[in-house]
Amino acid sequence: MQRIFLSDLHLDDPKNNIFSGFAACLKAESKQVDEIYILGDLVEMWIGDDDDSPIALALTELLLTTSKRCPIFLMHGNRDFLFASKFANKTGVTLISDPLTLDQNIVLSHGDALCTDDSAYQEMRKVLRGQTWQNEILSKSLAERQVFGKGLRAESIANNANKSSAIMDVNAEAIADLLETKITTFIHGHTHRPGIHQIAERDTTRIVLGDWGPCGWLCRQVDDTFSLECFNLAHRYEI
Ligand SMILES: [Mn+2]
Question: Per the CATH hierarchy, to which homologous superfamily does domain 2-232 belong?
Answer without folding.
Answer: Metallo-dependent phosphatases (3.60.21.10)
